[in-house]
Amino acid sequence: MEKLDSKKIKTVCQLSSLHYALDTRIFYKYAIGLRDTYNVIVVGIHPKREIIKRVEIVPFREFSSRRWRVFTSWILMFFKAIRLKADLYHIHDPELMPCALLLKLFGKKVVMDVHENFAGDIFDKEWVRNKKITFKIFDFVERTICKKTPVVLAESSYLKRYQEFAPDITVIQNYVEPEFFEQFIYKDKNPLHLYYIGIILESRCITEIMDAMYVLHQQNLPVHFHCVGRLYSRIEQAIHSHQAYSALKEYLHFYGRMNLEEGYKVSMQCGIGLCLIKPMKNSIESKPTKLFEYMACGIPIITSNFPLYVQLVDDTQTGITVNPISVQEIANAIKTLIQDSTLVEKFGHNGLIVSKEKFNWAVEHAKLLSLYARILN
Fold this sequence. Notes:
The chain contains 17 helices and 14 strands. The chain has helices spanning about 25-35, 65-85, 95-105, 120, 130-145, 160, 180, 205-220, 235-240, 245-250, 260-265, 280-285, 290-295, 305-315, 325-340, 340-355, 360-375, and strands spanning about 10-20, 40-45, 50, 55-60, 90, 110-115, 150-155, 170, 190-195, 225-230, 250-255, 270-275, 300-305, 320. Strands 3-4-2-1-5-6-7-8 form an eight-stranded mixed β-sheet, with helices on both faces. Strands 11-10-9-12-13-14 form a six-stranded parallel β-sheet, with helices on both faces. Helix 8 (about 205-220) packs across helix 15. The longest helix has 19 residues, at about 65-85. The relative contact order is 0.11.
């Protein structure tokens, strides 16, 4: 295995029991961005221990049971993390808060990273029982830890909640590296080909997209859907049992989970990027990373009409917002882009500009470096 640079003084470790080691924020933004300044280790779901792009990957097991993961991953992660002897540990999952507390008790420097509105998300999780009690326990533990631990927020919309109890907050948003996405810019993208990358759940409007496709097929618009992400058995069953599946199956392309480079290569043939999410407290208050990624690829966007999304898309003129549970609105938006090449070109061009000038990771990266320097020095 390739050796890391032993001359670098400090070692920083990203910890996640939920995310894959090659997660966009954890690996492509944080780890790669930090590797020129620190030795970087990422502990996350991965098949083997190896070094990728000068970052050491340490595998963590993937749990088939959510409850087992929530109740046991923190202690397993603690024993794995403490053996790595890092100078700083960056925690990326709420279920690892007890691990953060243990690391601090052992004198380690810890940062908590809030990717989503975890507290609000509790009420949207079907599998969480006794939601009010779970929220109270979570809220108590989070407040206790964050009072004495630096906190990183992926969204400024979470600030109000965390300012109540966390004295040390840094907002580091999921903006993009335009240089990375330049390789996926393709002028002749086809709006008959829809693109989606990310987690595949019913809340991502997969069945509504299929319904909209069927409407368009009835109008002699043979739309294809290219979907990159892990296809869980429950949603796969919903797709196969969908009334329009037999008519659409040759137009549905599921690639499974892919790394970021491979996943966005698929987008090069697509002319519309979909980011349709059903209304949930967490989704309403969070801007999905893929919106910025679509912009950086020059792909026009169709997304949910939540106020936060409407403001983003309208201000940048990069796409269309729709009611995510309205099949007709989704179909109309797709049809509009298929029939208006000038609008497609405008949205795509605007996305390329704002990804460089407004949503550039370079500014956020500087915040991360500053935070680490302050904590470690």
